[in-house]
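SEVERITY: medium
COMPONENT: batch folding queue
REPORTER: lab tech (J.R.)

DESCRIPTION
The queue accepted two submissions in a row. Attaching both inputs and their returned structure tokens so the on-call engineer can compare them side by side.

ATTACHMENT 1
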Amino acid sequence: MTLSTNMRVHLCGDECAQNFAEQLLRLGDGKFPVEHDTDLISFPSNFCNVVASLDELVETVFSNIRENFRDNQWLCDRAILAPMNESVNNMNVQIQDQLPGSLTAYESIDTVVDSVQAVCYPTEFLNSLEPLGMPPHRLISKPIMLLRNIDPPKLCNGTRLA
């Protein structure tokens, strides 16, 4: 399965977003030129803004986050793409530090069902795994309010959704 149409870009009609989406597809298809002596990809000058540090990147993309974090549209208009989960986790921590409220940690279940197998899979090892598509074992977040009921037969924010 491959990405061929970015529906958000397609439906919104934003020309800049359309150009960026097309360049991302070209990048994924390996159609950007590669420097033969360094094996680095040559990006067009309008592909991205180069910044010197992670702090500058976060400030550029999420400037004034303390004033705008409750604005859903403002948040939906921003994204930072990163190739590694570790980079994403580091940026999330940095952005969360700028938001009001105290941090809350949630940990996944870290026990093995079969006690015989527990010897083969130490808890520390299980907790260190970060499989693709899964949140980390220790998820640190600020208080949130669910906008969608994840489990329909149950309650969401104290209200049964029908």
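ATTACHMENT 2
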Amino acid sequence: MTMLFKEPVQASPDQIIWLERRGWVYELLMDFLSRPPRMSLIAQWRQRAELTHRIPNSRGGRRLRSYLESIPEQHFRSACYQEAEEYQRLFMGNQAVLIPCEGTFRAKRDGADAFACLSHIRRMYADSGVVFNKLYGESDDHIAMELEFMAVMAEGMRSRVDSSHLRHSCLELADTQIHFLEVHLLKWAPRFADELIRATNSPLYSGLAELLQEFLVYDLEQLRKWRAGMS
């Protein structure tokens, strides 16, 4: 058993592609759900999508990619302004349409203990050594913070595979991500995405919502397969 955990991690070609792309997708979702998108952010992700082709070929991914690629140059500034206004309408202020924080969302929808939920999330961040540089005072259970946590963990696992780290290190990272998806993100993000789809006519936010639903389920499935293959 000791020798098993000293073995470097082996990954199939398909797993390598998944490992390389998953952090990128979490970053994409986090960037657009964290704050009103600036013109530079939309331009950056449009260029990255065109150059890398990493947006998943799912329904939501195709919708999002099609929208980013179809914005006419002469209307780019006005389109970006409209998306920033839509973010504010959806998520900001006392009149916000949606609840972007897990504790409050689950307290209102399920009667969950919002403080206990937030405390558990903070413990998971601390136990994983993840500290966020919060520029806008986001709560630790904000959808963007939870997605950023997964992006950080995904990059950590990818880098360990690339550098042939010992197997137990990747096992710990996989277990943490599986637990976070099962206990937190997948407990509320799919319903949050459903509400977002119903609340907006924006192809940007409807595409992001569909991609969020699709990708979280897919990523958990892949993590479980990855974890089983290392056991």
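NOTES FROM REPORTER
The chain has ten helices and no strands.
No errors were logged for either attachment.
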